[in-house]
Amino acid sequence: MLSRLSPILRHNRLFSAEARAMTRASLYHHARVLQPLLVRSSPRIALATTPNLLNVSSSDSSSMFHRRFHALRNIVGGGDWKLPKPAAGRVFAERREYRKMRKRAPKRKQELELSVSICIEEQLPDDTEIQNIAEMLRVNVPMAMKLAFNGLKDSKYKTRETDIEDVGGFETVELSVMLCNDEFICKLNKEWRGEDHPTDVLSMSQHVPELKLPVLMMGDIVISVETAARQAAERGHSLLDEIRILVIHGMLHLLGFDHEISDEAEKEMEEEEELLLKSLGWKGKGLIQSAYDIEKTAKPLPEKSDDRKKGDGLRFYRPKFSYIFCDMDGTLLNSKSQISEANAKALKEATLRGLKVVIATGKSRPGAMRILKMADLAGRDGIVSESSPGVFVQGLLVYGRQGKEVYRGNLDRDVCRETCLYSLEHGIPLIAFSQDRCLTLFDHPLVDSLHTTYNEPKAEIISSVDQLIAEADIQKVIFMDTTEGVSSVIRPYWSEATGDRASVVQAQSDMLEIVPPGTSKGNGVKMLLSHLGVSPNEIMAIGDGENDMEMLELASLGVVMSNGAEKTKAVADVIGMSNDEDGVADAIYRYAF
């Protein structure tokens, strides 16, 4: 490849012996193949001088992608479609009662049949725009083929390989065009060219001149819709325009053009690209010219194809899971207890692509909703609301379809009393969670921080221990202190004092939670999955703390943040980025699609 184009143009015709021998089955194995479009046309009619050459109609079919297209031939020299006239001579002969000798019609040259298959790789979602583009290509590609073929005879290009010289010697010409995403084309690019990165278009020839077959198998053009979409945005035209440009580029490679071998070859291929686009009336510049235009501002390709799923890229991928269960503190929330713009965008994109996101947190439902509302993720169209599924308060409150309560677990009343007395005796702040309320025994800055920093409901101060216990069922209590105080004093004491009546859970270094025995997000997620009729194999889970361990082990894929607990990292399938590095967004882009 020429040095001035190497960072930008990364598409090549594969003419190695291995590529020639490669069967199309290797491509079609993962593709949805559209019905071939059969176009019959006379090589004598030049498309450039006969507008409206093809009148394409479809037979009755309920599916857009199972139409059959037929082409009518225009009468040379006239712009109107004509029907054959009645055989007047035959009628006249019958009236005179004698048989008239019929003249033999001159032998007509066999018309060339163009067979085009448009394929959509199975990992591409059922995106309406992609389907419409595929439908347009069924008509556009044969038109481009015919125009390119008509120019071969009079071609004066010196650098083009002439394995395909005159298509008039063939009965049929076959070509396939596959639309795929970056991940698929990256694998092909690595396998056939040894380059481990996505590209926009690959051309793979199937033509073997030595076989002298009546069928010209031009080969396959593979186009990454994802890369094409980015290039279309950069160049200011539509996705269809960009894919048409890539089709022209790929087809010229199959016809023997190769811009990589010399400056002259590059110039000749560029001229042919521009000529075809102009003759067809398609928008945009040829790929080679476009590469020159953006050369100075072109960004280097990322090392991993997963990085290219960001932005609008998720629309070109099918979800690998049905649900994502996501923790909040230390996971979705950064160290400032905020949802970053990148995380919010990734969650919105995931839901738009059909993934259901379920919050699994130690927070109360009002606390979770308050934070998510700030990022426009709460409410009827968000990922959490009073009518959506969710796992809250460490799995002690589980809500299912339409927000129906599936499970509620309460802390033993004697344990509640003992924790309250301990709080008063040692002056250590305690908050009791009772469904959508938070209760406490005295005012304290740390108690206020649970509301101002962690967005939990503002704690109600209850005058006595007896009144607090009688006020409502308590699901859990939290002690708040310094990190040192929690680890060296509070946790050792309550790990022994609760016995088998309660469990000790630590999600934050400066908090210790006392919960009913057997409490875990994992159990809450299990109950919710049973309620929804969903298998653990269908979910991906993201968390950071020890309280997330069972949930991560349960999921088909468990992702722990790099800021997570060491015990949690030991059981997770993947260690991702930290909560301050948009770890949730990174996990979604890399693993959910």
From TrEMBL:
Keywords: Endonuclease, Hydrolase, Metal-binding, Nuclease, Zinc. Coiled coil: none annotated. One of its GO terms (biological process) is rRNA processing. Its cofactor is Zn(2+). GO terms for molecular function: endonuclease activity; metal ion binding; metalloendopeptidase activity. The keyword Transferase does not apply. CDD domains: HAD_Pase. Belongs to the endoribonuclease YbeY family. This is (rape) hypothetical protein. It comes from Brassica napus. The lineage of its organism: Eukaryota, Viridiplantae, Streptophyta, Embryophyta, Tracheophyta.
